[in-house]
């Protein structure tokens, strides 16, 4: 039996779709499975485009194409003047090219509501497993997936090595379900059973995720999460949400000013530790970050326009570190400063431009999506991405393989949901 081109394309589409489902589910657990699924999706995507001919290689249009394209070109050019061209070239091909390919694959795969729903469902199943794993770790002191112990005997890490990895993942992974739990409508008199099940499941996942996020004791992520919930309530735009926002701001300001942080706050995991402002500069972790930021700033000033070369921050670290810095090689713990140090001011600005366009476009698009599920999943996902990007200003999430892939896939899903919601497929 002869197999036609359309059958092959359909097979490639279905394989790509399922590779993405498995990839999304496994992002929290396995680098190996993530890479296998990513490579499978990319191969099928490229093969499909080759079968479609010249027109097939045209990328799907999104409002982020231009800033992402400029960022990609600057990273490519930085290889030619990099202090370590081999490292820059490998990272450009094996990381950034893969990330952007996955972004466009997700955008092009999310052509109907069913696919968006299934991707969010895969994320939800993964979130449930990770939360149960983290809660198990909290009480047994090691997780059942990778046998990781609690960090410093207190901080939940789940299947991640460090608590900030889990917290960064939770910021995005929990966000669609928080949006659905808060805002997905139910009929007052006789709620639809399917809608009730969906809202109940989303609410359970949201509660579990918030508990696990708090248990990481990662202050930057927790404050970013609080900011994302505030943004979510603000964008919802009802009198009730505006009132909650006002009370939220008043309470946060009052508590941050009046609550002192006890001595040794880096060992204290309580409310005052997270919102007390007096320890933000004086704490041990804050001082360590300030030294890393100083190193990053020195590196940037050395070559402010060209940068040191894509992904070369760590190999150049010892040349610029402050004299009293502890031994070791570190990331900048500010992804935007690291972009500036590696690719110059224009590399950092192109990424910030992408964030700006995503923000403006998402705020404008949210109310125009008619489907309730897609609209509130979109709202939650946007706010989760915003929280992730805010946390990236004090962490390394955009330089971690699984967390970076999570970001670009979520960005593609956000743009895909918008296209489906608009009917622009």
Keywords:
425 residues; mainly alpha; 69% helix; globular
Task: List the topology elements.
Blueprint: H1 5-26, H2 31-52, H3 65-78, H4 85-109, H5 113-140, H6 163-173, H7 175-183, H8 193-215, H9 219-236, H10 239-258, H11 271-275, H12 284-302, H13 317-320, H14 335-366, H15 372-391, H16 401-422
Description:
This protein has 425 residues and is mainly alpha-helical. It has one domain (59-422). 69% of the residues lie in helices and 0% in strands. The chain has helices at residues 5-26, 31-52, 65-78, 85-109, 113-140, 163-173, 175-183, 193-215, 219-236, 239-258, 271-275, 284-302, 317-320, 335-366, 372-391, 401-422. It is globular. The chain contains 16 helices and no strands.
């Amino acid at each position: 039996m002869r197999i036609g081109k359309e059958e092959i394309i359909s097979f490639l589409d279905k394989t790509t779709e399922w590779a993405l489902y498995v990839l999304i589910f496994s992002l929290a657990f396995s680098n190996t499975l993530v890479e296998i699924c990513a490579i499978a999706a990319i191969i099928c995507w490229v093969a499909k485009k080759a079968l479609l001919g010249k027109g097939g290689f045209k990328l799907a249009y999104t409002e982020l194409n231009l800033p992402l394209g400029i960022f990609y070109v600057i990273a490519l050019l930085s290889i030619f003047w990099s202090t370590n061209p081999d490292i820059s070239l490998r990272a450009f091909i094996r990381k950034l090219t893969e990330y952007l390919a996955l972004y466009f694959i997700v955008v092009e795969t999310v052509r109907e509501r069913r696919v968006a729903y299934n991707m969010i469902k895969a994320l939800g199943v993964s979130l449930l497993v990770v939360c149960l794993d983290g809660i198990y770790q909290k009480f047994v002191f090691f997780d059942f997936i990778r046998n990781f112990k609690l960090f410093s005997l207190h901080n939940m890490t789940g299947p991640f090595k460090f608590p900030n990895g889990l917290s960064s993942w939770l910021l995005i992974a929990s966000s669609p379900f928080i949006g659905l739990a808060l805002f997905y409508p139910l009929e007052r008199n006789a709620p639809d059973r399917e809608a009730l099940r969906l809202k109940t499941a989303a609410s359970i996942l949201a509660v579990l995720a918030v508990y696990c996020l708090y248990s990481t004791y990662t202050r930057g992520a927790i404050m970013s999460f609080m900011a994302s919930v505030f943004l979510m309530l603000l964008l919802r735009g009802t009198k009730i949400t505006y009132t909650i926002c006002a009370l939220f701001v008043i309470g946060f300001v009052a508590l941050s000013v009046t609550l002192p942080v006890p001595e040794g706050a880096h060992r204290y995991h309580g409310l005052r530790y997270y919102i007390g402002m007096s320890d933000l500069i004086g704490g041990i972790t804050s001082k360590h970050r300030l030294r890393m930021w100083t190193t990053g700033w020195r590196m940037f000033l050395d070559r402010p326009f060209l940068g040191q070369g894509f992904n070369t921050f760590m190999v150049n670290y010892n040349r610029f570190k402050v004299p009293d810095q502890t031994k070791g090689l570190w990331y900048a713990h500010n992804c935007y400063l690291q972009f500036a140090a590696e690719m110059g001011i224009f590399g950092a600005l192109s990424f910030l431009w992408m964030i700006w366009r995503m923000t403006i476009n998402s705020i404008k698009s949210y109310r125009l999506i008619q489907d309730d599920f897609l609209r509130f999943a979109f709202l939650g996902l946007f706010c989760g991405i915003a929280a992730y990007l805010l946390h990236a200003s004090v962490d390394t999430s955009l330089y971690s393989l699984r967390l970076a892939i999570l970001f670009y896939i979520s960005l593609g899903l956000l743009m895909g949901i918008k296209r489906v919601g608009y009917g622009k497929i």
